[in-house]
Amino acid sequence: MCLIGAVAPFEGSPPTAHAGQTPTGTVTAGINAQPSMRTWRYNGPNPDSWWCAPPNCYQNPNPQVSIDGELNLARQLGVKIPRQEFPWALIEPGRGVFDWSRADLIVGEAAKYGIPLQPVLVFTPSWPNSGGPTYPPAASDFQSFAQAIAARYSSIHYWEMWNEPNYGFNGGGYWWPGVEQDYVRDVLCPGYNGVKAGNPSASVLLGGPSSPDLGWLGNIYTDGGGNCFDIMAFHGYGSPENDSPGVYNLLVAHGQANKPIWVGEFGAQEQGTSDPNQTSLLNAVYTSHAHIAVAEWYNLRDDFSMTCCPMAVHTAAYWGLVQHDDATVKSPGFATYQQLAGGTPTPPPPSKPTISSFSPMSGPVGTAVTVRGSGFMGAARVTFNGTSAGYAVSSDSVITAGVPSGATSGPIAVTTYAGTGTSSSNFMVSGAPPPPPPSITGFSPTSGGVGTTVAIDGTNFSGASSVTFNGTPATFTVTSGTRMSSPVPPGATSGRISVIAPGGTATSSASFTVTVPPPPSSCPYGWSCQDIGNPAVSGGQSVSTNGVWTVSGSGTGIQRAADQFHFIARVLSGDGTVTADLASFANAGERSMSGIMVRSGAGAGAARYSVVITGHGVLTVVYRATTGGSTVTLVAAPGNVPPRDLRIVRSGVAYSAQTSTDGVTWTPVNGSSVSIQALLGSPLAGVSVSSGSSSRVTSANMDHVAVTLAGVAQR
User: Across the chain, how many H-helices and E-strands are there?
Assistant: First the structure.
């Protein structure tokens, strides 16, 4: 029996809730794993992913440990299909020359847990196109690759043709720099033909655009791609359950009402272990009556956007239902997904191994050492002061390991998918030299506030017992003998970083600067300045002598039923306009938003109409019709990087948006008009800034900020 509001079972056959059927409230639960590559950070395997290349694997030196552990988490959650990029650039490094090793490992591990994968074919190798990994390939080359991979993995039923192929960035293309015609000609149709040749029973997904962009989706049909996919897909980071009817109507208009609709990505960022926004979104989507067959949450765990090599954390993201350690679950989001998806009821979080004792306490190379403790099942590595050893797992509480050649005196460590356990005492290797002293060769970033994750590079970190920031103790994770990470602890002050390891103490030659967010400055005269939704870091503002406003804000943004952002506003008591020239962003991420807004009040769930530009240049128009209601996306148009003049026009309860490049000639934004009864009367109107993350502060420079009523500008 399938209860209304529960998630439909998924056994590797197509989901039953198709786009053309009357929705039943059952949506199949999928989830995303970390991106395989982030070529705008580093043109190679993402060190924080299943595709990392040792020794540049940040999560665990042995990638199989991370893959196994995260698939085990997916099984506990009840995930029916995980979405994972399969990067063409890494699998076929030369024409007809394939490296299947990592793909084989991932497919094999998923089969072990009985979870069918949904691969995304993405990233062009260098040999068919010198433009870069996001540039269009030769159609024949991509078709050959799609045929080869579909034939090799015939147990996989679903193949997606690229990720967010509508998402170009400053002309370079985060995922794809071309237009719809390029995508249809070079990827979608050749990929469809290749998959069908390799496995005729497999289904092909349209590469999900970054938003439910009906104009882009319509052009797929105009450019001849309507018969080159079996499953319609889009990504929705607002309210996908409200966006899907428009996508369904597009299918109906093209005579394809029976094609399923999959939401390839949806999610919300939550730092820490409490995730009310994630929980609200999960319930809204997975219990919706919205023509959605499958919805794939982004992401399984929090992840790092990294540069390499050496590895360095560029940006931390908090989309996961589990924190970055693959062990600490968020609440109640993890349990909510689990309940909706039919996973194991309230599973205990995976526990990393612990070592209580070992014997003997010393001996030469080759000595058999009995290690006792807990959590040893599935052990992937045993080390003596960082040197890998041969071992045999007798039970969950006993491992026998041999002292390896080259080992030095120091702690014993056991690693499983849940983490690494390290002995509190050292094993002394007879005849071995004393442990070499540690050293710190550098760290990144060189400054940041409390909570900033700092990557520390050096030597001989294995067995480290302490990290301090100018004397203040911090938690830490040892990734390898040459890499560790540590968040800046509360109370830390600027100064040097120190590490204590078995060979002694190392102190950095340079100082880490602990930054403190500046206090909010005075509010412009006649305006109210406030944070909406109580973001973790307060926003602020200043006005220069030449009239430029610098507005800073953090918070998760304007999404779902509650908002978090910094707002500078005044009352708009009748018909009029709200105008601002968004000149530039600073410290903006993909989900950062800045622009103008009219809202019914200062509550986090107030009704509102917003015109914003994201950190990646997407002009977005959204509204909430009632207090506490869902957010509806009217417009999501890429290619609108600042500077841009934005305007909201109000006439009674009718609201619409306009843009300009010179502040003189204004162009209406197609599809932006809506009537909002809750914004009748005297709502608040002004400018808004949100960073899209509780740990980031984004600032925006604006000028010509004005609220105009009856021909009188209130600046």
Answer: 10, 47
CB 20 within 8 A of CB 259: yes
H helices of 287-361, in order, are 333-341
Judge contact between 199 and 150, C-beta under 8 A.
yes
Length of the chain in terms of residues written: 715
Q: Report strand pairing: 453-459 vs 684-690.
A: unpaired
pTM of the model as a whole: 0.56
Mean pLDDT of 478-486: 88
Residue closest to 655 by CA, chosen among 710, 606, 611, 687? 611
Calculate ∠ Cα 143-147-153, nearest 5°: 145
The vertex-72 CA angle with 67 and 75, nearest 5°, equals: 125
Sign of the CA dihedral running 81, 85, 91, 94: positive
Dist CA 487 CA 343 (whole Å): 32
Bridge-based pairing state of the strands 42-45 and 81-87: unpaired
Segments of 630-672 assigned E as strands: 632-637, 644-651, 654-660, 667-668
In the numeric block, the tokens 């060190």 are attached to: 47
- Among the listed residues 321, 337, 326, the one whose alpha carbon sits nearest the alpha carbon of residue 275: 321
Q: How many CA atoms lie within 13 A of 557 on its CB side?
A: 31
Q: Which residues contact 122 (CB under 8 A, 6 or more apart)?
A: 36, 85, 86, 87, 88, 162, 163, 175
In a 3-state reduction of DSSP, which class is residue 351? coil
pLDDT band at 4 (very low <50, low <70, confident <90, very high): very low
591 confidence band (pLDDT: 50, 70, 90)? confident
Mean pLDDT of 426-449: 89
User: Measured in whole angstroms, how far is the alpha carbon of residue 649 from the centre of its chain?
Assistant: 34
Which of the pair, 368 or 311, is modelled with greater confidence?
A: 368
Residues 234, 215 contacting (CB under 8 angstroms): no
Rounded distance between C-alpha atoms, residue 520 and residue 679, angstroms: 29
